């Protein structure tokens, strides 16, 4: 008698810089596999919104940490219904504002802030793994998932893309046609994130690097779903 299919109950750690398709791929992959989706970037953005609302200088590490420590950040784990809530208020739109984007690198570079949010991220992943109705896997995406948040992930992937492709994708998201300006901004963000002392952006040990420059979102999702199947050979929840 053939063995019964088993759902994917592990963790897919998806890291990479902006413009590689990371968020869209992660969300669609989680939906494809029928598991949780954790957008850690939304948590740092929510923390940044809290800091800006408090009128605190994003470079003031002590004050920023105090604000974040006293804030309640909640994110949906449903890939089909993403929502970010700060202190009981939906900030799903505010976290994507230009003001938030300009300040998020400074806030997320503060070591104590990262410690606070990484602890929350780990708890969200553990909660899925120990759910009363059965273990639920998670696709977690960010810039330090495979290296810091969940280094024991069953599948670690690092997405990359050529700079011109990343700039075009980002321009499409922002509705901005200044490709040169966007590319310059992304280079500054990459340098900042890669050079920070705490949890720098890098390809995690053991991660599979995937260049998305010439691949569609669907092609990347299919590739990663296949990689996930290799970890859990027969995945009942795969909706492909």
Q: What is the class in the CATH system?
A: Alpha Beta
Shape: globular
Q: What is the count of DSSP helices, taking H or I runs of 4+ residues? A: 9
Count of discrete domains: 1
Which secondary-structure class do the elements indicate? alpha/beta
User: Can you identify the CATH superfamily?
Assistant: P-loop containing nucleotide triphosphate hydrolases
Short description:
It is built from nine helices and eight strands.
What does this structure look like?
α1 (22-33) packs across α9, α2 (40-53) crosses α4 and α7 crosses α8. The mean pLDDT is 89. Strands 2-6-1-7-8 form a five-stranded parallel beta sheet, with helices on both faces. A three-stranded antiparallel beta sheet has the order 3-4-5, with helices on one face. Helices cover 48% and strands 13% of the residues. With 240 residues, the protein is an alpha/beta fold. It has helices at 22-33, 40-53, 61-69, 98-108, 111-129, 145-149, 163-174, 179-195, 217-231; strands at residues 11-15, 36-39, 73-75, 84-86, 89-90, 138-142, 155-160, 208-211. The chain is globular and about 50 Å long. It has nine helices and eight strands. The chain has one domain (11-229): Rossmann fold.
Provide key terms for this protein:
about 240 residues, alpha/beta, Rossmann fold, five-stranded parallel sheet, three-stranded antiparallel sheet
Describe the protein's topology.
Blueprint: E1 11-15, H1 22-33, E2 36-39, H2 40-53, H3 61-69, E3 73-75, E4 84-86, E5 89-90, H4 98-108, H5 111-129, E6 138-142, H6 145-149, E7 155-160, H7 163-174, H8 179-195, E8 208-211, H9 217-231
Parallel strand pairs: 1-6, 1-7, 2-6, 7-8
Antiparallel strand pairs: 3-4, 4-5
